[in-house]
């Protein structure tokens, strides 16, 4: 296991011949404690009686109520993107599978700033790729449709998909390389990140969408698309957006570390065993849903909840 981690680490981008990469730290073997079978229950603690509990992802008997909840969280996700400064003209899209009609998905309207989007502005796209009468009557991004409808077809496990031209993501994507696992948060990308090492121009054909789906494979939720930017999937839109924003921050961190490494500071890669141990709990889908909730609640406070309408 240790030898494999070291070998894998040596394959990762070194940033040039003068950059030193230390070998991964040895696994700490500190994983002795018996853990709850539900990974979400490992990350929080209540009282002994069990009356104080952390809420997980809600479930709905009424699919129309679930649709309303999804649209609210989707609109909040766009607002967060706007707050993070991810807007780049008309580029960028989030799609979420509709619970009422699972072969349909919700999408943002073309050319509307992320910071202005409300739940009522979201467009419901049919399986034929055209705007339906069930949502806002507004056009959608063609490249976004081509990419996302392919991903929703190829990855039925993915409820949500997100892509935009965030600055640090598209900067690191110029290298066509994965990020290193050098900090605890980055462990969420252990065995969960692919790289599409090609650029076929603006995505206007199903073939390019299929190429990206091939790069993601059957399990990875995150992808760095060379010369383009970041793409993430999720079992909820909250997980999808948390992963996207974390990957953006990790790309920024990677760029800063590479600059420091050029001055002789060696990089230390987390051992694969420890990264996998951390990812198993912190990377659980319900845990990642909860990681986005502080931002969602803050957005409601800051905006008076106007995006929920």
From TrEMBL:
Pfam families: Aldolase_II. GO terms for molecular function: actin filament binding. Residues 72-255 form the Class II aldolase/adducin N-terminal domain. SUPFAM superfamilies: AraD/HMP-PK domain-like. This is Arad-like aldolase/epimerase. Residues 18-49 are annotated as: Disordered. One of its GO terms (cellular component) is cytoskeleton. Coiled coil: none annotated. It comes from Dioszegia hungarica. NCBIfam families: PRK06208.1.
């Amino acid at each position: 296991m240790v030898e494999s981690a070291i070998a894998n680490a040596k394959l990762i981008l070194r940033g040039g011949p003068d950059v030193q990469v230390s070998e991964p730290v040895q696994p700490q073997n500190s994983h002795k404690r018996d853990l709850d079978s539900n990974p979400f229950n490992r990350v929080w603690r209540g009282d002994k009686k069990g009356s104080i509990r952390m809420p997980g992802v809600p479930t709905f008997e009424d699919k129309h109520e679930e649709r309303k909840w999804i649209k609210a969280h989707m609109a909040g996700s766009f607002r967060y993107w706007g707050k993070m400064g991810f807007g780049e003209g008309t580029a960028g899209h989030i799609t979420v599978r509709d619970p009422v009609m699972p072969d349909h998905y919700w999408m943002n309207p073309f050319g509307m700033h992320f910071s202005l989007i409300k739940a009522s502005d979201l467009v419901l796209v049919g399986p034929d790729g055209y705007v339906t009468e069930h949502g806002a009557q507004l056009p959608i991004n063609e490249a976004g449709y081509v990419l996302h409808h392919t991903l929703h077809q190829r990855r039925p496990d993915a409820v949500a998909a997100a892509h935009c031209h965030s600055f640090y993501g598209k900067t690191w994507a110029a290298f066509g390389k994965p990020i290193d696992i050098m900090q605890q948060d980055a462990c969420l990308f252990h065995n969960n990140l692919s790289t599409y090492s090609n650029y076929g121009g603006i995505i206007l054909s199903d073939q390019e969408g299929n190429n990206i789906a091939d790069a993601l494979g059957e399990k990875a939720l995150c992808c760095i698309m060379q010369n383009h930017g970041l793409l993430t999937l999720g079992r909820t839109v909250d997980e999808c957006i948390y992963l996207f924003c974390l990957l953006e921050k990790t790309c920024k961190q990677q760029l800063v570390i590479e600059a420091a490494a050029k001055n002789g500071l060696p990089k230390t890669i987390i051992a694969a065993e420890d990264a996998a141990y951390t990812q198993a709990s912190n990377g659980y889908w319900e845990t990642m849903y909860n990681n986005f909730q502080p931002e969602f609640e803050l957005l409601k406070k800051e905006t008076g909840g106007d995006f929920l309408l």
